[in-house]
Known about the structure:
Elements: H1 5-17, H2 20-27, H3 31-45, E1 50-52, E2 57-59, H4 61-85, E3 93-99, H5 104-107, H6 110-118, E4 122-128, E5 142-146, E6 154-158, E7 165-169, H7 171-177, E8 191-194, E9 205-209, E10 212-216, E11 222-224, H8 227-235, E12 240-244, H9 245-253, E13 258-260, E14 271-276, H10 283-295
Parallel strand pairs: 3-4, 3-5, 8-11, 8-12
Antiparallel strand pairs: 1-2, 5-14, 6-14, 7-12, 7-13, 9-10
Amino acid sequence: MAVDLNGISVFLAVAEARSFRAAAENLGVTRPAVSQSIRRLEDRLGVALVQRTTRSVNLTEAGEQLYQRLAPAISEVGMALDATADRDSAPSGLLRLAVSSIAEQFISGPLLARFADTFPSVQIDVTVTDEEFDIVAEGYDAGVRLGEVIDQDMIAVSVSGDQRQGAFAAPSYIERFGKPEHPSELSAHRCIGWRPAPHSAPYRWEFGENGREFDVAVDPQITTNDMWLMIRTACAGGGITFGMEDTFRPYVGSGQLVPLLQDYCPPFAGFFLYYPSRRNLAPKLRALVDHVKRWR
């Protein structure tokens, strides 16, 4: 049976006011319009809902039962609509984000810590993942990825400047095995590689030379999906590894790792916060977008 929402709203107004006149005034319609709506609803249901005399309006037994069932449901609908329409309220609720494990500036701590401090009513759920999927279908509010892998129908806001990848090794490794002078020499070295998922092939290391981009399949001796395992193994002299300069910068600064092949590592567009194109953003997401813009 098709739902007569207009008839239901008129019935509820009559049931609460116990008056066709008062119901008409509350709804901003005429009394005949109220009578017609009630009659159509009764005809549709095949049962009388309202008993009307010259002095009073009462609900029948069926009308009272219908009212008792509808009133709580309509109240819930009203609260849901009010909450959705209140776009100018303070940001609150659960904000779900899918973030690349190599988006160092976003997940390093300070950016999210400051956001949480500024908006204490927003609960932040961050899934760190390098799998590529539809964030909308999976129920995420936004994601953070390299710009080159973000769909063009998304809105994207930069969360970093240009980035560079690089190769890195510990001084102890270099002392034992030397430095590669060109990416083509990596096949003769012990390498520590990365893969996004258990059944994925190891990531091919990307370089550039004379304006031409190319990649190298290094056939790593050690492969993992965990960046920190790569770093710790490289620091222990286990081989040459490869990743974002931002991730390795603290270890280079402390002397635990040495950058290699820098002349073959050109910059490229960095990381972006991305989300579906919408006319009206939820306050919690709008707050994050504005926070990211100020952070940069």
